[in-house]
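Recall that a protein's primary structure is simply its ordered list of amino acids. Everything else, from secondary elements to tertiary packing, is in principle encoded there. The following example makes that idea concrete.
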Amino acid sequence: MLRVLLYLLLFTSLLQAQQGIINGRIEDAKTGESLIGANIIVNELENVGAASDENGRFSFNVPVGSYSVKVSLIGYQTIVKVDVIVKSGSETNLTIKLSETALEMGEVKVTADYFDQAIIENTLSTVVLGAEEVRRSPGSMQDFQRILQAMPGVSFSDDQTNELLVRGGSPNENLTVFDNMEIHSTNHYPNSFNSGGPINMINVDLIEDIQFSTGGFISKYGDKLSSVMNLTSREGTRNRMWSGNFNLSMAGAGLIGEGQIDDGRGSWIISGRKSYIDLIAGSFGLTAIPHYYDFQFKVAYDLSEKHKLSLSGIYGNDAIDITGEPEITNLELANKSDTVDVENVDVKQDQYAAGITLKSIWSKNFFSLVTLSKNNYNEDIFVTYDFTERFYDGNGEVFNTEKLSKRKVYSRKVDNGETALKTDFVFSPAKWYEMSFGGALKFIQYTAKIESDADTVRYDINDDGAFGINDPVIILDPMSVDYKFDFFEENKNYFYLNNKFSFFEGRLIVNAGLRYDHFTYSEMRHLSPRFSASWYLIPLVTKLNFSYGEYYQTQALPDYGDRYQSEINRYLANTHSRHFVAGIDHILGEGLKLTLETYYKNYSQIPYSETFIHYYDRTLRSEKKLSVGEKEAWGIDFLLQQKLVDDIYGTLSFSRMWTKAEDPRSGYEGKSFVSDFDFPYVLNLIVGKRFTDLRSKLNKMNPVIKYMTMVLPFSDDMEISLRWRYASGKPYTPREFRTNEQHREGHIQWGKGSWVATDAINSARYPDYHRLDVALNSRYNFDNWSLVLFLSVQNLYNRENIAYYQYNSDGTRENVYQFSLLPVGGFEIEF
């Protein structure tokens, strides 16, 4: 890939001044209705701009480059759209939403909004990111969830996954909304219990915006306890028959195509991407090779001026075959032989989500969204053991081996689908009042077939090194579970109502809502009140916020099953969380915003295994779960965010958190421990600088520098950025090495020990985490196409961050490290 990049760079001497086009549409943020007569100007250019026509559309030519676009209209809040990238011979399409000015400004100076407040439904704990912010961020690998890990209140497990740990919550407490569809995950290699994964399926070039709320969200969203991630994909161009993009990065090689439908009445866009790590695996010494590919698309069509139909979807297919290493054996055996087993894991997964949405504007004060969607997740895991007998001579050397068998020990096939009909209505009869209401009916289809071998476990209860007549033997029968939710028999449904009020000439904004959730299988029903208020101390500059809410979440579907299909977990209670959030927002300058928030979350009805609760009874094996857990999380979040203004951008976030989980084990009443997701200190710093005409200036200095710029990734439109992050070490439960603690019959090896967790849960921490990432992005514009290069180095100073400890059967402990120094590069060709 580096050779390809070098060849492409050699052509940069052919660069010429080029022109591009900015197209767009101005619409009302609430209804989507076209706005006529809005003024659009480019801040960096004099006398360049346009006014929106009767359809709310505008178009004008500008030189290639990066700009900020200011949009104003009487009666609406003025906004500034940054990161507007204009490319050679192509069009940049913008959809800009304006909100009516609720505040009576009087003589107060109008402050432009750089932070997309018009599209935010939640009044606090929410950030909005655009595609360009994701693309250029160092350390993100163009994965928007890894960018969200830099937001305040968000922690992360390790470098290998992009899962989000929000304000002390677990990774399964995050709601993902993709084009108005509530889906399980947007990641390759997901699992049934959270929305994270190692690689995101979403193509950055298809993102319009991302809204991320870390708490206190309104009644429209539920069945999750910690966060809402609302992702909107962009529409294709409506002004050209087609245009395209080829890209290559560590995430894979991909193509994007887009174009108009019916002379601009509609549009289409499609993206396809495939991994190529299997082609270069030998260079990295990889043995477990991930194979994956994905597709994403969106089609939009205006049925009339008031009704628009859109169809969007995403699909991903994953496979990986993992071959384990032979177990290290103890040679102190009576017969000088042992049986060695090697575990092989074969994983195949695929998932998709597709939905069709009808948006209707019934009047200036009333509009609706109706979405019919289907999402599905399939998983096939197959685990086998290769058994080999090894014979040793008197010196302990292997002199003979005999392969015994290859045996399947575990398999799991899962098919998890959901078909949903979702409606949202917004009615605004007066400037001071808005009512939102709606609901959804979700039909669940879930089948899981799980098989495992029989297992016989013996216990040396008194630790005397021998198995006596009083030492118990537990026989676990072969497991064959066929677990099923029948389609149309079981469903989740919800209804919500939210009332938004504006008092005191718009200085006080209040949201008061109520939500009803029902899961037919567990028969759980809940009403969840929500309330939030925002008081503008200084109009559009300084705002005080407060919110309170009750939140309920059903359990992951596998948690309702058991190996005996006895339905002992069918009526598991929903986990409950109560949120209190208070904070302040203050605009310090153009595109510079400070946010300070404090929060408190109280959890109850957390399920724990009955085996864990009766901790001292080491022979108890129970499939039952009890909803007895309680937890508290509270903390302070700080965010300083600078949008791209005067070629500088950055983010500084800091979080201080405390958690306390009540110990549910019998005999530990009144005691507590920190949760698995407790990270007391998290700090993220992102700083970036855009350089304009840098290459031209360097070329004028001397011939040596001129020729250097022909092979180095310098251009007249480039950015350099860095990200440094620090986090307290994650908690873990220490282990002690004991001999003869537990043995599997047929594998008894005298003198060989096992690692057993101590009684003190999460009483230790891994070393603190920190790393530095740097990134460089360069754009080159040619006659009718452009080239974008992105180069980054992750963990620049090669910090040895520990992911976890691996405990070996010989009593030793090894460190398993996270990403070391890792260069990452790629390019895009846009035409």
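The two ends are 20 Å apart (CA to CA). Helices lie at 2-10, 131-136, 144-148, 277-284, 610-613, 694-699, 703-711.
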